[in-house]
Specification:
CATH architecture of chain B: Orthogonal Bundle
CATH topology of chain B: ABC transporter involved in vitamin B12 uptake, BtuC
Number of helices of chain A: 10
Number of strands of chain B: 4
Strand content of chain A: 25-35%
Helix content of chain A: 25-40%
Number of domains of chain B: 1
Oligomer: heterodimer
Order of helices and strands of chain B: HHHHHHHHHEEEHHHHEHHH
Structural class of chain B: mainly alpha
Shape of chain A: globular
Order of helices and strands of chain A: HEEEHEEEHHHHEHEHEEHH
Radius of gyration of chain B: 21 Å
Shape of chain B: globular
């Protein structure tokens, strides 16, 4: 850590005036925010307020049109998706993106193996990696399903497997895009438990959700977006009870 | 398979219980497809005699090298390439030109440079040149995916054909190059068909071994993830373009070796051996056998060669229709396959 970076280490993630336009639509517009290390931060906002776009920009899935993302104190004008794990960041997707036609087992194994091209050619599965994959699969309750193809799973199982895949990355910061959408209560409890466990382990969790009940239960902090801009941020209850937030959700 | 012992226990359980074994076998299309094609090949050999079987075996070995190598790209990495014939052609022309002997007549009508190098020195060069071409093409192709990639590889097949046709100072254009040397070690010339068949089978085994080594490594698992979702695998720290380029080059080098063997075996090549149709046939074989399975590519190549060579023995079929009948039969087979078994004979995955 250099001295310039140490100013930022309180924050896992910051953005400085980042923008993303789709034609005339300003999905994210000069947005600046900061997400402290550790704890759970939720991102809420009406439909089309730029929540998913923000997650895509932070993880390098979409290129920035302007501004800068600061991950773990390092300022990036271009976020390369394949470098995000080196910055200690991983994510899940809103529309589940598993590797459908490979097994559940391989879906987890693939994020645990060698990243460098040449050594990966000569790497066979190590027992330690195998153990890690097993413990992840057991944690998300998918051990029995390990030999099925990912596409054969139910929606809830796919959602869980995707969270398991993110967990297997074992990084500092997790971006979870709508981890609760469309889940039955039983699965929902399981995802909640996993997220609470992650928080206890000292990870930084950022999640997008529409379910205010869960947001209240899990979040330490909340960020409210509206039309691609920051509407409010801070502790959960004051923000959710503030006039402008209530207006954005109920008014107009 | 991560759980070898469990699989072995399953199999030993099957062997102990004949009823279960029968049930297992009846529902196992892969097993029946394999048995059927192997049986067909053996029957064909007895029917037409060993001499013809040796020739068919050589044709099979060359097609099998091509389809196993193409399966690395199409089946494992999910890049539907119809440009494989270009690398095959580069290998073949490398062999033809570098082994060319000044004693032959061809050099008086349309002169090409003569080298007279021995076969075994040239074969690695075939692979290297095909690999170099693949690097150049691959760097450009890495930008494309899905249908655009198919179109781009189509373009590569057309371009390479036209280079073979028009680069006359090297390829003799439409005249073709004949009297290509057979392999020779010291005084031992591989002029017998059986010796050449064995040589081809050795290289087929090598190609299969390398392919198996790749697909069973961590590298291979990343390839399948790229096939499923290239953007998602990048989020997990893999630079997909590097992986795609690497497997593309490896596969092209294998095709280059197939080309070298092919040129030496037929002793005559011209650009008509390297048209787009050949590439389409290679892709068909890969799909016929099954995506992302080495064994499937072997079966596919075997079925294709038996179909192609077997056609000429159909009674009452006029000789001039045989060529078309082959392609029609292959076409019908592919349509039926897509309708009833889209994952191919022994595959598990769909395009």
């Amino acid at each position: 850590m250099t001295s310039t970076q140490s100013d930022h280490t309180d924050y896992a993630l910051e953005t400085e005036a980042i923008s993303k336009h789709f034609g005339a639509v300003r999905a994210v517009d000069e947005l600046s925010l900061s997400i402290p290390r550790q704890g759970t931060t939720s991102i809420v906002g009406p439909n089309g307020s730029g929540k998913s776009t923000l997650v895509n920009l932070l993880s390098g899935v979409l290129p920035l049109d302007g501004g800068m993302v600061i991950i773990d104190g390092e300022g990036l004008r271009v976020v390369k998706a394949y470098e995000t794990p080196d910055h200690g960041l991983t994510r899940t997707f809103q529309e589940v993106r598993l590797f459908d036609q490979i097994t559940v087992w391989d879906n987890i194994m693939v994020v645990l193996t060698e990243r460098r091209l040449f050594p990966s050619l000569f790497e066979r599965t190590r027992p330690s990696t195998r153990q890690k994959a097993q413990s992840i699969l057991e944690q998300v309750g998918m051990w029995e399903k390990r030999d099925s193809l990912a596409q054969e799973l139910s929606y809830g199982q796919r959602k869980l497997l995707e969270i398991g895949r993110a967990l297997a990355m074992n990084v500092q910061t997790y971006l979870l895009d709508e981890p609760f959408a469309g889940l039955f209560p039983q699965m929902l409890e399981r995802v909640k438990d996993i997220m609470k466990q992650m928080r206890e382990d000292g990870s930084t969790i950022v999640f997008v959700s529409h379910n205010m009940e869960i947001v209240r239960e899990l979040s330490d902090r909340i960020i409210v977006l509206d039309s691609g801009a920051l509407l409010a941020a801070g502790d959960v209850e004051p923000v959710l009870n503030s006039e402008e937030v209530i207006e954005a959700y109920l008014g107009a | 398979m991560p759980f070898g012992t469990q699989r072995i226990r399953e199999l030993t359980g099957l062997v102990r219980d004949p009823a279960q074994l029968a049930r297992h076998a009846r529902s196992n299309i892969e097993l029946w497809a394999s048995l059927f094609i192997i049986g067909w090949a053996i029957a064909f050999m007895f029917w037409q005699g060993v001499g013809f079987a040796i020739i068919i075996g050589t044709v099979f070995a060359i097609w099998a090298i091509l389809s196993v190598s193409l399966n690395l790209i199409v089946g494992y990495t999910g890049l539907l390439s119809v440009g494989h014939v270009g690398f095959f052609g580069i290998g073949a022309y490398t062999m033809a030109v570098l082994t060319s002997n000044p004693a032959y007549e061809q050099l008086r009508t349309e002169a090409i440079p003569t080298f007279g190098w021995p076969f075994f020195a040239v074969l690695p060069i075939c692979a290297v040149l095909a690999g170099l071409a693949a690097v150049l093409v691959g760097v450009v192709f890495n930008r494309f995916r899905d249908d655009i990639f198919v179109l781009a590889s189509f373009g590569f097949a057309i371009i390479s054909f036209n280079v073979f046709l028009n680069l006359r100072p090297v390829t003799r254009g439409a005249f073709g190059i004949h009297e290509i040397a057979r392999p020779q070690i010291g005084g031992w010339l591989f002029d017998g068909e059986l010796e050449f068949l064995l040589l081809c089978l050795v290289f087929l085994a090598l190609v299969m071994l390398v392919s198996w080594f790749i697909v069973s490594s961590s590298f291979g698992r990343v390839l399948t993830a790229i096939r499923e979702d290239e953007q998602a695998i990048e989020v997990f720290g893999y630079k997909a373009t590097h992986y795609k380029l690497a497997v593309w080059v490896i596969s092209a080098m294998m095709a280059g070796i197939a080309g070298g063997l092919f040129a030496s075996w037929t002793t005559f090549i011209d650009p008509n051996s390297f048209i787009l149709l050949e590439s389409v046939l290679m892709v068909s074989i890969v799909i016929l056998g099954g995506l992302a399975t080495i064994w499937g590519s072997l079966l596919g190549a075997m079925a294709f060669v038996l179909l192609e060579e077997g056609m000429r023995f159909i009674p009452y079929l006029p000789a001039e229709y045989i060529g078309q009948a082959r392609q029609a039969a292959l076409g019908i087979m592919l349509v039926l396959l897509m309708l009833f078994r889209p994952q191919g004979l022994v595959g598990r995955y769909r395009l």
